[in-house]
Amino acid sequence: MTEVREARAARSDVVIPSVDVSPEQQPTAWRHRHLLDVDGLSAADLDLVMRTADAMREVLGRPISKVPALRGRNVTILFYEASTRTRVSFDVAARNLSADVVNIAAATSSVSKGESLVDTVRTVEALGAHLLVVRHARSGAPQLAAEVFGGSVLNGGDGWHAHPSQALLDLYTIRSRLGTGGDLGVAGRKIVILGDVLHSRVARSNIWSLTAAGADLWLCGPATLLRGFEAWAGRSALAGRRFRVTSDVGAAMRDADVVMALRIQRERMAAGLLPSMREYAARYGLTAARLALARPGALVMHPGPMNEGVEIAPDVAAGGQSVITDQVTNGVAVRMALLYLLAGVTARSVASA
Amino acid sequence: MIDLEISRAWLVDPLAGREGAGEIVVRDGVLAAVNWLEGSAADGIEPTGVVVAPGFIDLHVHLREPGNEDAETVATGLAAAARGGFTTVCAMPNTTPAMDEPGVLARVSSAALASGSPLELLAHGALSAGRAGQTLSAMGELADAGVVGFSDDGSPVRSASLFRHALAYAGALGLPVVEHAEDADLTEGAEMGDGLVATILGLRGWPVAAEASAVARALVVLADVLPDVPGVRLHLTHISTAAALDFVRLAKSRGLPVTCDVTPHHVALTDEWVAGARRYAWDAVDADGHARDPWADHALVAQPYATSLRVNPPLRCAEDALACLAALRDGTADAIATDHAPHTEVDKAVEFGAAANGIAGIETALGLILEAVDAGRLSLLQAMTALTTGPAGVLGQRTRRAGAVGLVEGSKADLVVFDRSDRWTVTTAALATKGTHSPLLGMTLPGRVLLTVADGALAYEAAAD
């Protein structure tokens, strides 16, 4: 363990927060009170999250993977949509930082009695919440929560709009495999997001973070699930953020360094967007044959939950190129980093008020 | 009845197609004299100062009474209209219960009388019984009771067959069908205008095709009815897309009896406001007239997802907004109507996708249109025409001012006085409507209304500072 810590310290050229103490005791460069989207994060912000997550990885490697940094701080996890992975990941992350954690699932709360989001947020604040993690089926809901909440809001996924913690853990996972030294390992790499881009908050958030990091980003899927993205790519290119949009899965896969498959939902058939799951699997599923078009050793990612045999073949999901379980582990470290950085801002703004 | 003298102002008379320096005299509620000043007498009187124009006519307002008096009442709606410079408003029938028979209309008319407002309150009757889109409303009885058109506004008529019957039946009564053109299949679950901003914000897009295809359908059905019912009339309300306006332009060139209106918010605001931009449509395009990218421009200055911007039809891209302006210039659009749609705080302080549709804009309409005038996108005369003689033409003889929506000596005084050089700040306290969810709160607008006179009586007077 000591060796790992020394190795990381040696290559550090910025101040990494010492995560064993509470965040307000040390100034960091983090300035965002809320994390609602990734479009507002600078390269320096991304770097700080990555390095703080490194420190959290080190904590996770300890025999007792718990630090007192957020002792006495209340993290409320308010989920209006079903979720296992993200909710538990935030829960574990907050507990590892010694925060008090309150979980609220909309189905078992006053929300099912018709309480508005605004009233619910005011209530959890009155009950002592300092950090609020919100997951909601409607795009922009965490923004509304942030407008009424006195602490920090962390977007746990809203509608089709954004899933910042997922995009950051994806970036962290790519960096941990392809990065060298202080480099993210993303610049110039061909990264493919494959599947239901239209309904995906993961895809949207990754567009911002991966184009900012200089990836050769490709979005691939059936034309019905790419509506609007060609226009976005055209406008984005004028602003220096480039990505490509195609329904040609062969062209997308060729020489890819990273392939990220997205979940396909059965509702898409009922809505007339796709003929069948079978046809989707045949034409767009991430199979070993398609993966063979990519560079040798290309990384396979999936934000989960997976439909194995539909958007990803079971042998690919469990194969040697898959970093899907790394994504889950890294998710805890990245969420610890985000909670830690946001808590520092809130603590300082309260202290200076 | 009011006595009034306004000397040294800029007079705009859309009826005569004339504007210039002048003065007016009102005696006992009658416009006794309109004197146009020439030569040195006109020195120093600019069109950018105090303007006198006929009172505005709004073809499309929601007064929410009966049924939703928390959001607006006839009294507060008329007070808001007067503050905005309007002296005639046409209420939409989507009340609870719907205005699909004369009893509801009588109730609204008595509320107007009780309010003491001198404004003229007109109403569109529902097109279908209960606005359910299945069978015709009591059209003949509603016509006898004085409605000025028939509309299921807010719930577009899905059945082309019912729509055809409504056009014919209303046409024989001498009344227009006022259609909210929207293909509801294409807009199911839609949250904002389709396009770059919707894609980035992850909101379900309301495609241009939903409006354009509904307009095309309405126009070909109109052509189908015309040979049998020469009096048939179609008015398309709150048209918001270049594609739909192209169809209207074509139909007018073929001589079809169609008119249309556009709203101030579709002219001046765009979809990028939902992302947090606060620049007008004409400032959001590049040299070729294409919408710019507000993210790349660092133009996002306000919080995104403001539900005050949720409206149906949705705010569109800048190209569509500029097409609405072009339609006002070339006469494709006959009128500016506000679609004043107040809601309660409860219905707006929710997630964007769950918020009620509507902008309560009757008090900010003039300011937004004057911003377009100041930007050189519309002449003052064109703007005043679209607020007065334009909508009067749609109403024909059914407004009390029939045929005389101008500065006509000897007529009852019905006019608005505003100061283009006097900018005012939009605040909840400055608004008379109950629907204070304006997207313009905190912004300043030109053209403070100083005085509104309706039917010879004072309807509104700005408080002295």
Task: Compose a concise summary of this entry.
The complex is a heterodimer of chains A (353) and B (465). Chain A is an alpha/beta fold. Chain A is 42% helix and 13% strand.
Would you mind describing this structure in some detail?
The complex is a heterodimer of chains A (353) and B (465). In chain A, helix 2 (43-60) crosses helix 14, helix 4 (117-126) crosses helix 5 (141-148) and helix 6 (164-178) crosses helix 7 (201-212). Chain A is globular. Chain A has helices at residues 2-11, 43-60, 85-96, 117-126, 141-148, 164-178, 201-212, 229-238, 249-253, 267-270, 277-284, 288-291, 314-317, 324-352, and strands spanning 74-79, 100-105, 131-136, 152-158, 190-194, 216-220, 243-246, 258-261, 299-301. Mean pLDDT of chain A is 90; it is low at 1-14. Chain A has 14 helices and 9 strands. Chain A is an alpha/beta fold. Chain A has a 5-stranded parallel sheet. In chain B, helix 6 runs parallel beside helix 7 (242-253). Chain B has helices at 74-83, 102-115, 139-145, 160-172, 196-201, 208-225, 242-253, 264-268, 272-275, 318-330, 345-348, 365-374, 380-387, 389-395, and strands at 4-13, 18-27, 30-36, 50-54, 56-61, 86-91, 120-125, 149-150, 177-179, 192-193, 205-206, 234-236, 258-262, 335-336, 415-419, 424-425, 444-445, 448-454, 457-461. In chain B, strand 10, helix 5 and strand 11 form a beta-alpha-beta unit. Chain B is built from 14 helices and 19 strands. Chain B has 465 residues and is of the alpha/beta class. In chain B, the strands form 5 sheets. A 7-stranded mixed sheet of chain B has the order 3-2-1-4-15-18-19. Chain B is globular, with a radius of gyration of 21 Å. At the A-B interface, helix 5 and helix 8 of A face helix 5 of B.
